[in-house]
Amino acid sequence: MWRSARVALLAIGVLTLFGCASAEQEWVRPGAGRVVRVAVLPFENQTTSLRAGQAAGDLLVSQLLATGAISVMDPSEVADLLRRENLDPADPGRLPSAQRVGRLLQVSHVLYGAVTEYRYKPGFSETPAVGMTARLVDVASGEVVWTASHARIGSPWFREDGLARVAQQMAHDMAAHLTFALGDARAR
User: Fold this and answer.
1) At what angle do helices 98-105 and 75-84 cross, to 10 degrees?
2) Which CATH superfamily does the domain covering 20-187 fall into?
3) What is the dihedral of CA 61, 63, 67, 73, to 10 degrees?
């Protein structure tokens, strides 16, 4: 009896540990200056899920604003200014360089990226999986000063994670790292 209880407890522990897996890689350019004002472009959608790129960009804007450490340009203003220049904000792959877009928008930095995975993985229980990459470009120099690549699998066990929750947590983690590294320290 004790043996079967220990086996059951061990199985629950293993499922809990492996129920939510993530991989994160982040980098900050040494000596990079503080972000004064950032424009977040719609993220490129490399998935089959409609609007995954737009959702990722919106989540990052919300999370950056929530920190209070970085001034974020209103996404509707970004879209309007791009349209006035005959650029389609809904097609991030065809936009000019981030430096050129940043000069047009009069911001210090431009944040852009891609959603590489946004789906439920089939199996015994469908598991949400989200992958995103992001880059922050200093408009003055044209250099990438921050990058992040996150992949996360939610838990189908005990705590039912959905795609939106996994993506929101990922955006929160990216925004926290970015604001810690390059945001206004007085706002933290």
Assistant:
1) 100
2) ABC-type transport auxiliary lipoprotein component (3.40.50.10610)
3) 0
Residue 164, both tokens: 């939106």
As beta bridge partners, residue 132 has 115, 150
Of 51, 53, 35, 34, give the one whose Cα is nearest residue 43: 53
pLDDT tens, position by position, 21-33: 678 999 999 999 9
Whose CA is closest to 147, among 23, 22, 24, 26?
26
Domain extent listing, the chain: 20-187
Percent of the chain residues topping a pLDDT of 70: 84
d(CA 20, CA 157): 9
pLDDT (tens digit per residue) in 114-139: 999 999 988 777 889 999 999 999 99
Give me 95's structure tokens.
């936009």
